[in-house]
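Justification of resources, computational component.

The compute hours requested in this renewal are based largely on the per-chain cost of generating structure records like the one below. Each record pairs the submitted sequence with a full structure-token output. That output is archived, and it is also reused by downstream analysis tasks.
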Amino acid sequence: MFKKDALDNIEAPWLFQTDHQADVYNSYDPIILSGSLMQQTLDAFYDEIYKKFHAPAYAGKNFNALRDILTDLSWIINRSRYVVFFQNAEEILIKGQANALQGFLEILVSDRK
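The structure output for this chain reads:
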């Protein structure tokens, strides 16, 4: 069973699976991504991520830009931690390019030393 206090740890792992509702984690000010809004196209995939992260306007809709945006979060103001939830995660890119999802997950779990 996943324990919420794991979110206070800065050591790996950084990706967890839970059946809890996201509102259980409201004290962490989570970023909630909707898989159902990310299922059709890569544009929809990038749009949902960039919208919820409030990404800068210059963020390109390609994997390299996504990696750059998510591995340097210094452009986000007033946030000391990043807790991201995927609602309906099983729907992400089911009608699009699933390899982009794999790349996105690799970014999320990569080591940031």
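Helices lie at 42-53, 63-71, 98-109. Residues 27 and 99 are 32 Å apart (CA to CA).
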